[in-house]
Amino acid sequence: MIGLMARSSGAELALLLLGGFHTMVDEVTVELAKRGHEGVRPVHEFALRAVDAGADTASELGRRLSVTKQAAAQTIATLEAFGYVNREPDPNDARRKRVRVTPRGHELMTIGGALFDKVRSRWAARIGPEQLETLETHLAQLTERRSFTAEDLQD
Amino acid sequence: MIGLMARSSGAELALLLLGGFHTMVDEVTVELAKRGHEGVRPVHEFALRAVDAGADTASELGRRLSVTKQAAAQTIATLEAFGYVNREPDPNDARRKRVRVTPRGHELMTIGGALFDKVRSRWAARIGPEQLETLETHLAQLTERRSFTAEDLQD
DNA sequence: AACAGATAGACAAGCAACTTGTCCAACCGT
DNA sequence: ACGGTTGGACAAGTTGCTTGTCTATCTGTT
After folding, report:
1. CA distance A58 to chain B (A)
2. Which of A73, A83, B123, B135 is the most exposed place for a label (fewest CB within 10 A)?
């Protein structure tokens, strides 16, 4: 059966990883919309988190997310239009625009984080907290040289 | 430190999953290009596998990948242009076009599968074969009601 | 046999999130 | 003062999806 010959446990693993990701983000996205944050997509959530974690220029965000600085700038523009960040000139470097997370952006991250944590808690209840931590540890080991990309966060 | 307040272990888990996925597919995509399969993106590989596993119409592929039948049809058109599938009328249902994987498509899946398996083997060597199987079992449990989507396979 | 509803697919247009290309201003090291 | 690098703006293009609309075909019912 030629179909079976094409089976690949490696390809199936890739799909399991992707499925896991989308199981989480789809639920969070739907729920965020219900909580007054319509139109938020995974790339917004994760870009916002990266900004808040220190990637506060378009160039830096691009590096952090492994996309071009133009793509990062576009995401920042969208976040600004939504009211989640604002931009202001860097007093020490006139080339730069500093990106700041607004209170509304913090609200988004707080609600979003709680939603992600809720999904994670259900997963911990399902397979055991220690098993989940082991899964996370393993994934961290296996991906440790990779930065995450917004391109990967495509809806 | 407000940055730390926004930390979410659930959001970090989502990124670990995505990072794992892209660690695998990026390496496979690069290597496939070296082996004469340029321009192949993850959506192509996984759509081809779904066709080969039985989703041999655009409507069926759309269901299998959780995208619209139009999106599936566009992917099939791309696969056909690349020479990985061909389409022919269904003798029993004039509405339908049956999608067949070509020998070149089988070659892509064979090479791609081996590449995915190679990455998986390295991961097994890294964390232990039984640990990897446990990780896979857990992910399968946690995502079992979800079908994987080509939208998720965005490059 | 006729008909209504469902399904498959084609086509067009639009959207989101990226890319490349180009350009200019500002900074830094020599 | 100058050359190289960096940050960002802008435009245009690409990819992979979406929605909307339409037609042909199939199926079940009457």
Report:
1. 18
2. A83
